[in-house]
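Moderator note: this is an archived Q&A kept for reference. The question asked for a predicted structure of one protein chain; the sequence and the answer are reproduced below.
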Amino acid sequence: MKTRAAILSEMGRPRPYRDSRPLELAEVTLDPPGPGEVLLRLRAAGLCHSDLSVIDGNRPRPLPMVLGHEGAGIVEAVGPDVADLHPGDHVVTAFVASCGHCQPCTRGRPALCEPGLAANVAGTLLSGQRRLQRGGPLHHHLGVSAFAEHAVVARESCVRIPEDLPFEQAAVFGCAVLTGVGAVVNTAALPRGASVAVLGLGGVGLAALLGARRLEAAPLVAIDLSAEKLALARALGATHTFNAADPDCVAQVREATRGGVDFAFEMAGAVPALELAWNITARGGTTVTAGLPHPERVFGLRPVVLVGEERTLKGSYLGGATPSRDIPRYIEWFRRGELPIDRLLSERIALADINAAFDRLADGQTVRQVIVFD
């Protein structure tokens, strides 16, 4: 079938993207779903820093590629061996399709699925196949390629959702909520009432803030460079806010939290932010990072501090999630009013506006922009 998609053919084009247009909208050929695969009609897709990091070259991926990984849509057809999804089902996509059989999967850590991560790096589906073409094969972004009107994905990339959940809200559960709330709930196993700081108030960071608020974190500190995002964090429950550009930021946080926080969550994807998070973590505390800076960047720490203060540094990918378990759980929290993720939606845009939208994301002007398909 033919469908319209946003294709990245070259990384590192100069900004503004509205002029250099790194993403080209074009008609592509989408092959039918193979065994264990599903054809989706996308209805919404969120713009994430993980997409931006491919566009600017900080997260190299094989090209040409149809970007997008935070999607929600309707099942239109299923391939052989798919018995538990049917045309008309509403689903959210997850950006690691876990095989269920490798060592991490059998140990309950599907976010670290070895075949799933290998497929993501190679730009294929879990099967190793590519279903997109335009004068030759196109690569899939994180097994999803949600910046398109239709997508073929592995069954393992889909989580069924209630049909009355608006698609633009549903989409953010696939990355921002899964990653941010998951870092709090799964990776940190945050105890109720612990002190928390969140650095980087994009969609993932603010989702983490909401997850920490649900667990009655106190104090609950928010740190960013944007005054507007800090104001939003206060409205969402932060008890203290600080600008990361302030040279006294570390001292101010440590004073306000009586020596540092029990848990610091770095969600900015920048080594200076991780350094700040480490420096505001209390003795005996835990620093969690879900950011993905350029793979050549290095974070240094003094082992004597790690040992002498019994500190913990943890990475969190996909929020340590089991998507089939966690997405329905987080949706239920949202519907009970305990996780107001609808407050994270900054703008609803058309696919044709995607390049200018990535300018706004790169400038830190927005939290979560969502493409809404006709």
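Archived answer notes: The CA atoms of residues 119 and 126 lie 6 Å apart.
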